Every structure is written in structure tokens, then in C-alpha cells.
């Protein structure tokens, strides 16, 4: 990806859809599906329906903001419009940025985990983080080398991933002897031995993780000024992207559930799709699924690294976050690429997929609640937004976040404490930086 000038109306509607689905269809569906099943049990398919509904309600405010203020700044500029240049804007944008960095680490470890399935090596091997860091370095090199290939063929690559996963799902369903009877058992969740002890709470908590498979729609708003007829097409692109992937994720969840029991999905939660391919499709199915996973993780890693470096560079230029050249030459965005590579590599080495996904989900939901609340209370008339829809989005976010945190407190309280501490550090650090900077000004 090059740090080039943004061209007005250079992206078509379907180009924007390709960009949105390309980012959304990344590591989450490969790495998080097993974690979703661990929370939701036999109600797995409902998790992705719920995630899609929350994403669609949340997207409403982003669409309204993008219609009124189409820009290349995306979420960062939206926060400035809502809250002004202050601690809330800077801290919330950083939560989004760190959520994206965590997604980078999730992508990297997923790449390592799925690649090693070809050699029958488990997810606890040191080779997983080693391959993950290798992918991050590759994505960094592509971004600084002004390689336009991924950017130019985003839509084509997205189509390949969507078609590939659809083929996997269809083949797995057919190989498993799928029928209406099996459908009712999987979809309606009637197998009592696989329903968690707190099904309502577990299902609500699973929405937080399922949402990770949809949150990439915000990437479309980052290119608002570059999309043809942005006032019309940004919203269309977001809704089409969410709809396409909601159908695909539901199809995948059904395919995996038809091939493996919930305990088996949970046991193979870091590589559930690969595990589901082997029993029904054999070695060729495994190779095919791993190939799609590698394609998805590599391309999304490159694009996502560009997006987060763009966001942090913009925040730095607006004097909302600290920045030091550390003797490096080049643009601020290139410097950010270096910082993001280092942070992403550390996270990839230190945390497993479950913990990376958990912190990322908490950061994203907190950020989104702050954004939705700001639009509701400060700017809804200016962007012609309906308060009822934004209120529903906030309520759904709070339900998913609260249930997820409560479940994590019972199973992994350390990660909840860490997430809370990091959020406090971000807000206090930003308040100190901005106060210090303004006093110097």
C-alpha cells in the first residue's frame, strides 16, 4: 500500500463492497468461530445472526456521519465532529486503533495456526507466533514498498474468499448428509447436551465475539471521499457488505456444526474450519480450507495495517496523540507502520487467540458505545439521524459487552482486568498529553 494522495470518486460502489468484505472476511471467522461456540453452545448460528443485527444497527450512525461528512479520515474525523479535538476523541480513536492492532495480531496467529495444520502441528507450537510475526513483517514490507497489487485487486480477492468459503460450506454440508432434520437440530439448538448452563447469557456474550467478524465495515467510511457518490453509495456498500457476510457466516456455522459436535468445535477452536473440513472432505478439503485461510489472512493483514497506520498518522498530524521520529526518515504514516509492526509482533508473541479476541472485542464495543452516545446527544439533528435506531444500537452494544465481561470474569478475569487497566491508561495518558501539549502551545 502506498501513502499516496487520495483521489476523489475513484472507488465504485462494488469496489467499496469489495473493500468492506475484504477486510471483514479476515481472521475472525477462522479463529473466533470456536470461541463463539464455547459461549453459545448449540445456539452458534444465532450468534452470527445477532452479530449481524448489532453491526447493522451500529452502522446506521456511521452511514449518517459519512453521508454528512465524507472524508478520508473515517472514524477519527467522525469523533472530531462529535466531540471536538479533546481527550474523548483522541482516546476513543486510540481504542479503535488498538482494536485494529489486536486484529492484526489475531490475523497473524490465525495465519500461523492454519498454515501448521498442513503439517499436523498444533496451535501451542512456538511456530505459530513465529509465522505470525513473519506475516506482520511481510505486510510491513508490502506497505512501505508502494505495492499497489492488493489495493488494485481487493474486489477480486474478496470474491475469491467468499466463493471459496461458500464452496467449503456447501461441500461440508453435502458430505455430512445435510437434511431438514439436521438443519432443525443445528439451527434451532435442540441438542440439550451442547447448550451451555446459562444459554441466554452465553448467547448474548457470544455476540461480542461474532461482531468481530463484521466490524471491518468501518473501513468503508475511511474512504468516504474516494467513493463515487459517497452520500448514496457509502451506506449501500456497508449494508450490502454486512448482508453478504451475514449469509456467508451463517452458512459456515451450519457447515461446521454439521461436521463437528460443539465439544469438538470448542476443542479445535483455534482452527475450527480446518478441523471441520477433514472428517467430511478429507485431505483435499483440509488443503482447500487452509489455502483460503492463508489467502484471507495475508491480504487482510496488508490492508488492515495500511488502514490503522493511516488512522494513527492522521491523529498524530492533528496533535491528538504523541509521535516521535526516533531518527527515522519518511512520512509520519511510515513511522506509524514501524510502531505498529513492533506492537503487533509483541502481542502476537505474548497472547493466544482467545485473549487477543477478547481484548479486541471489549475495546471495540467501548469505542462504539462512546461514538453512538455522542451522535445521539450532540449531533443527531445535524446528520438527520433517528434517535430510536441509535438508542437500539447502544442498548445492544451494552448487552453484548456486559454479558461478555461477566462470562470472562468467570473464566478469565485477568484479561478483563488487563482490558480495564489499558482503557484507563489510554484515557489518562491522552488527558495528560493534551494538557501538556496545550500548555506548551
TrEMBL record:
Coiled-coil region list: none
Record-annotated membrane-spanning stretches: 12-33, 39-62, 82-106, 126-144, 156-180, 200-217, 238-261, 281-308, 336-353, 388-407, 413-434
InterPro entries the record matches: AA/rel_permease1 (IPR002293), APC_superfamily (IPR050367)
Record membrane topology: Multi-pass membrane protein
GO CC terms: plasma membrane
Keyword S-adenosyl-L-methionine carried by entry: no
Subcellular location: Cell membrane
Keywords attached to this entry: Cell membrane, Membrane, Transmembrane, Transmembrane helix
Pfam family membership, one: AA_permease_2
A GO term, aspect molecular function: transmembrane transporter activity
The protein's name: Amino acid permease
Native organism: Methanobacterium bryantii
